[in-house]
Amino acid sequence: MEFFLQTFRIFQKFSLTINLIIVSFICFTLSSCEPENNNNIEAVSALALVANNRSTGSTSDNSCSSTAYCKIFVSTASYPALNTNLGISGLDSYCNNATDKPSGGGTYKALVTDETTRIACTTANCSGGPSEHADWVLKANKQYRQSDGTTVIGTTNANGLFTFPLTNPPRTNWTGTMNTATGLRPNWTSSNNHCTGWRAGGTFMAAQHNDTSSLAISNAGTMSCTDDARIICVEQ
């Protein structure tokens, strides 16, 4: 299914490029043959603008909102220091520039919280509903799969949260640390252990990426912000 979607997007881009060439040619012809006919020139210019906007919109639309599932990957390389003034945006950038980011494009965000910029819930399991979110990375009622696009991790509920146990962990074990940095509590509220917004020293709440219980997001203990940890990255 993903192959056909990618093929369709490539076809869309090619078709829109041809449209832009045709419109540009018409615009050139009118401006050369009828220099005084401003109405014609303005009309064709408007068509060119519409075509350009459509082209821009289609090429930038890499969201998984309209697809059957979104992907989650855990960075193979552990981030060596979470106290280096990264902030949430720095961790998001880390996800998008990771060498093991899944194929197919798309934008990814880090599954972390900091009590202010990114929040999953302000009450246990978002008893007040999804309005408690702030820049939250999981979509409501959405299936998530591992980076292979096949292995199902789980499906979120109406509040954009996983219920446990998961079908499969975010990623199975491999050599090296299993610890991931999240800053979350097991009930999806924010811990105050998040390296001061992922910008300074202190500690962070860790999780274990190879678990299917709530340990997948939290409660694996607190770690020093100078310790190595992996990042869970979620497709948007």
UniProtKB/TrEMBL annotation:
**DUF1554 domain spans which residues?**
85-204
Pfam name, any one: DUF1554
* InterPro entries, per the entry: C-type_lectin-like/link_sf, CTDL_fold, DUF1554
The protein depicted here goes by the name DUF1554 domain-containing protein
Origin organism is: Leptospira harrisiae
Upper lineage = Bacteria, Pseudomonadati, Spirochaetota, Spirochaetia, Leptospirales
